[in-house]
């Protein structure tokens, strides 16, 4: 057997060993943890995170494999707190039915590097490439992010195809794990109104069309894409954006994002759909 053949076969040997362990010991937290580490190693990734997005509840990250020296407060805490709302992979799963393996280049908007998500999160974690496995589950979306830092080459076509080939196995294991985990931890899921807040942000002071445009701008889409999606001219988009800035008393997309983040601090289970409703109240009228 040639050296090349041994090297080429090694990732699948590692994978089969991991699956054999799961068959022997059953699907549990240790098995999923080992599955994540094996997935990271077989494609030479720097990080591998499993994030669960329960319907109506805050997302959580039960498993994460990462390089030494990474700051979890940036890589996980900041993402789970609010940044995830603008993540293109999360938006793909929430805004429409999505299942399978997706590359960053498949889902990121044209102006991704000018988006607030890139500025406040992606740039800080220094990701250069990312592949996401999206698994719809009962009352949740399960996603595995496999990432590489900027100092490494992007995932090869062969590595992407390898992830696609093992997707069905990963899906079966995680759906079994989720069914068991949900039964054990049902009471631990905290109610969250963040998705509702994002969908309705600005609706109490903006027109319906302005609110639509605001949502797309927040999610990082360029004027050209927004115009195509809404079937109106780029000049009309710019006119609406000018009105949005005026009504919200802001001057830039960065200020828009910070206004959204600040308004989230006022969100409670009893809050109106638009977080600005409570945020703009005079202090004397706030609870």
From TrEMBL:
<dbReference type="GO" id="GO:0003677">
    <property type="term" value="F:DNA binding"/>
</dbReference>
<feature type="domain" description="HTH luxR-type">
    <location>
        <begin position="199"/>
        <end position="264"/>
    </location>
</feature>
<dbReference type="InterPro" id="IPR016032">
    <property type="entry name" value="Sig_transdc_resp-reg_C-effctor"/>
</dbReference>
<keyword id="KW-0805">Transcription regulation</keyword>
<dbReference type="InterPro" id="IPR036388">
    <property type="entry name" value="WH-like_DNA-bd_sf"/>
</dbReference>
<keyword id="KW-0804">Transcription</keyword>
<dbReference type="GO" id="GO:0006355">
    <property type="term" value="P:regulation of DNA-templated transcription"/>
</dbReference>
<dbReference type="Pfam" id="PF00196">
    <property type="entry name" value="GerE"/>
</dbReference>
<dbReference type="InterPro" id="IPR000792">
    <property type="entry name" value="Tscrpt_reg_LuxR_C"/>
</dbReference>
<protein>
    <submittedName>
        <fullName>LuxR family transcriptional regulator</fullName>
    </submittedName>
</protein>
<keyword id="KW-0238">DNA-binding</keyword>
């Amino acid at each position: 057997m040639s050296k090349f053949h041994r090297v080429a076969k090694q990732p699948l040997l590692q994978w089969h060993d991991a699956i054999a362990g799961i068959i022997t010991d059953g699907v549990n937290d240790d098995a999923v943890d080992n599955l994540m580490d094996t997935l990271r190693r077989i494609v030479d990734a720097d990080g591998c995170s499993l994030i669960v997005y329960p319907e109506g509840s805050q997302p959580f990250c039960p498993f994460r494999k990462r390089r030494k020296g990474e700051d979890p407060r940036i890589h996980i805490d900041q993402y789970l707190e609010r940044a995830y709302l603008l993540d293109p992979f999360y938006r793909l799963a929430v805004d429409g039915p999505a299942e399978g393996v997706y590359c960053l280049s498949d889902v990121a908007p044209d102006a991704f590097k000018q988006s607030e998500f890139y500025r406040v999160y992606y740039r800080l974690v220094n990701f250069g490439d990312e592949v996401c496995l999206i698994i719809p589950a009962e009352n949740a979306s399960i996603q595995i992010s496999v990432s590489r830092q900027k100092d490494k080459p992007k995932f090869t076509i062969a590595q992407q195809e390898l992830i696609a080939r093992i997707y069905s196995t990963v899906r079966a294991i995680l759906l079994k794990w989720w069914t068991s985990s949900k039964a054990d931890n049902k009471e631990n899921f905290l109610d969250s109104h963040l998705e509702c807040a994002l969908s309705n942000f600005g609706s109490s002071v903006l027109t319906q069309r302005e609110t639509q445009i605001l949502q797309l701008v927040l999610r990082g889409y360029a004027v050209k894409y927004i115009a195509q999606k809404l079937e109106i001219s780029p000049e009309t988009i710019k006119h609406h954006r000018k009105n949005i800035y005026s009504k919200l008393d802001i001057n830039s997309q960065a200020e828009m994002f910070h206004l959204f983040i600040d308004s989230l601090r006022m969100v409670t289970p009893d809050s109106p759909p638009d977080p600005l409703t409570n945020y703009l109240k005079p202090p004397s009228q706030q609870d």
